[in-house]
Amino acid sequence: MNKPINAKQFRFKKLNMKQLFENDRFVMVFSLFMAILCWILVVIAISPTTPLAINNVPVQISLRNERLKEMGLSVVGEVDEQVDVMVEGPRSVVGNLKPEDLNITVSLSNVTEADTYDLELVPFSTPTDYKILSIRPSTIRVRLDQVISKTLNVDLITRGLAVAAGYQLGTEQVSPTAVRVTGPVSELEKVTRCVASVELAQPLSNTYASTVPVKLLDAQGMELDPEELHLSLDVENVNVWIPVLRTKELPLRVNFTNVPRGFPESELREYMTLSNQSILVAG
Length: 283
Hints:
By secondary structure, the protein is α+β, with helices and mostly antiparallel strands. The chain is built from 6 helices and 18 strands. Strands 8, 10, 11, 12, 13, 14, 15 and 16 form an 8-stranded mixed β-sheet that branches. Strand 13 (208-217) and strand 14 form a beta hairpin. The longest helix has 23 residues, at 24-46.
């Protein structure tokens, strides 16, 4: 049978707060706990939203493609700009935002025709769970123009073209025979000719075949830089063939047909004259 518990055997020491706060370890733990508690109270009760800077946000002009098409304009050149955006909202929302989530684009309210503009940067749509405080820089320079295409025949230019003795040139061929050039109207007007150039160091004795880059020329015959003028070509290289044929001179002989039996052909030959005694054959 269990003995009754004597309450006098258990005496609790009275908690001495002064001694606790004289303990460095207790003070350190207590301070950390209170700091965390205060931070939680500020976040939840006092400041539920917070500002946050998001850097390297891409400018997505492609979001305005439909509007640009309606105006008959296109962006000339590559636009690879990045901006810094200051946002504000609940910590749980803005803390998870990524640069590509912001959909920063340009305002086309001031665009009326083909020209170069300093366009204001704006969000493509207004976010509902946070707000955008600022965008830096606030504008971006963009060139807008009408983009068209035209087709040019490829002209073959040969330098030093000759054949060795006993050979003959065939018909030169280029494939494809035409190139489609696309770009801004103002730049495309400068292009008047498309050529492929071949330079040979010695006479040919075999058919020449090579892949040659095409070049764009202006009215003065000066070469144009497609990249500098923001022009694109559907074909950048063409195949060139220059056939070379072996030649041989053969004597020309004449045979008669439907001559009556017994009629001397020699008498016919006495009255026959030939304009050429031989012919030149190539193959």
